[in-house]
C-alpha cells in the first residue's frame, strides 16, 4: 500500500491549498481559488462530518505512506434521497501526478462507496478536455454513460462534460445513473 485515504484535519491546510489553488486544477474544474480562512473552515467542517453523512461532499485526504504527506484528495457526494448513488471526484498535487496515486486512492474510495456505504452505482463527471481524469475512469473500469454538451463553465469557456458510471459488483442489473 503506497497511499491511504483518511478524513482530513486542520493540519492539512497548506497541503490542501497547494493543490486546491493550483493553476491546472482551476483550469480543469468549475471552481474558483479558495482563501486560507475559507479553506480552514472547510477542513474543520470536513473533519467533523458524521460517518453516515450524505447530501454533501465527503472528502478524504490522500496521504503517501512513506512520509505521511498529504498529496491530494478523493471524495464522494452521496444522494440522500435514495442513498444508492454517489458522485466521485479527485484532485492531486501536480508534483505527485503520474505515479498511480490517484488511481490507488480512487480504488479505496470505491471500496468505501460499495462496501461501507453499500451504494449501487457510482458516477464521475468531468470536462471532456480533462484527459487524465478520463484515463483514470477508464483504469477504474468505469464506462462512459453520456456526454452533456456545453454543460460546465470551466476556465476558458463552456466545456462538454463526460459522465462515467460504475455499478457495484453487488448491484441489481437495473442499476443506472440518472
Ligand atoms: C485527475 C488527476 C487526479 C489524475 O492524476 P494522475 O497522476 O494522472 O493519476 P494517477 O496518480 O493515477 O497516475 C496515473 C498515471 O501515472 C502512470 N503511472 C506511473 N507509475 C504508475 C504506477 N506504479 N501505477 C499506476 N500508474 C502509474 C500511469 O501510466 C498514468 O499515466 P497516463 O495517464 O499518462 O497513462 C490529476 O490529473 C489532477 O489532479 N487533475 C486536476 C484535478 C481534476 O481535474 N480533477 C477531476 C475533476 S472531475
TrEMBL record:
SUPFAM superfamilies: Acyl-CoA N-acyltransferases (Nat). InterPro entries: Acyl_CoA_acyltransferase (IPR016181), GNAT_dom (IPR000182), N-acetyltransferase (IPR051531). Residues 3-167 form the N-acetyltransferase domain. This is GNAT family N-acetyltransferase.
